[in-house]
Design a protein that fits this description.
The protein is of the alpha/beta class. It is about 25% helix and about 25% strand. Strand 17 and strand 18 form a beta hairpin.
Length: about 425
């Protein structure tokens, strides 16, 4: 469910025409629906309501402070993968005891900052990482709360770039090594074992891989507890898919029913880490047509948003539905929607049927709230887009558009190697 729709041919976010936002803020810009975010969080939280749980939003999906603050006000925690995301989560008011630190490459500084903040736990990905956490905890004279991420060797059936649960992926500890790792960690004074973790990938459109992974995790959890190691948390990760085109992903309720049936009888608190499933359909990218070009062989709508603003089509070949800001009647035309960047791979859509377009018309790129702005860059020296939050009939800029001066912040011209200095 989302709160984007046409009203009298105008595209609205909740009760605000996106044309009004574009007029005030400019384009390209990301627009998020507060009502949709609330609805999606509650759908997850209520689906798992029979069980003790903590819903930790995956900050990498959409890290805007206003979005994080809104979710925190609903009781959400944060799943983070960097020191920068820790900084964002804390600044947005998410309590440290609602923060879980995942990711394969935690640095000593990041680990130290997280320990000092008092986070809920680290999801440990490797033995070398455990030794680093142990060393930092010893230096800080504290104990580090950890769970271990298990790689269950489950095929999630998703894009290979976002599959994380296979043996060949870089994530987690192989299932056959897990018991030994837990036994060894239990002997370390600097380490407090608090849970077990598993995440098999993103954009999953069936419950079966989740159920398969949870069966394996349950067996491991029971074996770990039989060894005398108490587990308080069972982190089942995220990965539930959304509809970009014609996918039919399960609802949070169907997802929860499949998971909870497998875990029946266990006592651990569940940690959920949805990102895409909460944010994707809560955001759109608004862009404006600059030119329409017809080569005789191909028609192009050249817009002011580009691969630096939304990387998913270029990076994954991902599909995003694109609709006009004002609905138009008449015959459709097949065209590519492309940006200004000097790359053939700079496209938002290929061979897409759209109504005839002209300069200055608005287009809306849907399902862009996850891995949209968070993956954007300054490639081709392009300032990053503005971000806007809509709540009912009000909207507010929650990240201003970058300026050219922002592009060079932190840089300086060096005198090294100048001819006059030789």
């Amino acid at each position: 469910m989302d709160l984007f729709s046409y009203r009298d041919h105008e595209f609205f976010c909740e009760a605000v025409p996106v044309a009004n936002i574009a007029k005030k803020v400019g384009t390209p810009c990301y627009v998020y629906s507060a009502g949709t975010l609330r609805s999606h969080f509650r759908a997850f939280d209520e689906a798992f309501s029979p069980w003790p749980r903590l819903v930790c939003f995956a900050v990498k999906a959409c890290g805007n402070l206003a979005v994080l603050d809104l979710l925190a006000s609903l009781g959400a925690g944060a799943d983070i993968v960097s020191g920068g995301e820790l900084f964002r989560a804390l600044l947005a008011g998410i309590p440290p005891k609602r923060i879980v630190y995942s990711g394969v490459g935690k640095t000593e500084r990041e680990i130290g900052d997280a320990l000092s903040a008092g986070i809920l736990m680290f999801n440990v990905e490797s033995i070398p990482e455990l030794e680093t956490i142990r060393r930092v905890a010893r230096r800080l004279k504290t104990r580090a709360p950890v769970s271990f991420r298990v790689n269950p060797d489950v095929d999630a059936g998703t894009h290979p770039y976002i599959s994380t649960g296979l043996r060949k992926n870089k994530f987690g500890i192989p299932a056959e090594q897990v018991i030994t790792v837990y036994r060894n960690a239990a002997q370390m004074d600097e380490i407090e074992i608090v849970g077990i973790d598993c995440h098999i990938g993103s954009q999953l459109t069936t419950v079966d891989p989740f159920v398969d992974a949870m069966k394996r995790i349950r067996r491991l959890a029971e074996e770990i507890e039989e060894a005398g190691i108490r587990l308080r948390y069972l982190d089942i990760g995220g990965g539930l898919g959304v509809r970009y085109r014609d996918e039919t992903p399960p609802s949070p309720k169907e997802y929860a029913e499949g998971i909870l049936e497998v875990l029946s009888g266990l006592s651990q608190t569940l940690i959920l880490e949805p990102g895409r499933a909460m944010a994707a359909n809560a955001g759109v990218l608004i862009t404006r047509v600059l030119y329409v070009k017809d080569t005789g062989e191909k028609r192009f709508a050249i817009v002011d948003a580009a691969m630096n603003d939304l990387a998913r089509p270029s990076l994954y070949g991902a599909y995003h539905e694109i609709v006009p800001g004002r609905k138009k009647d008449g015959p459709l035309q097949v065209m590519d929607v492309v940006g200004p960047i000097c790359e053939t791979g700079d496209f938002l859509a290929r061979d897409r049927e759209l109504p005839p377009l002209g300069p200055k018309e608005l287009l809306v790129v849907k399902t862009a709230g996850a891995y949209g702005f968070s993956m954007s860059s300054n490639y081709n020296a392009r300032p990053r887009a503005a971000e806007v939050l809509v709540d009912g009939d009000r909207f507010e800029v929650v990240r201003r558009r970058e300026t050219y001066r922002d592009l060079v912040r932190g840089e300086r011209i060096s005198t090294i190697g100048r001819e006059e200095d030789k």
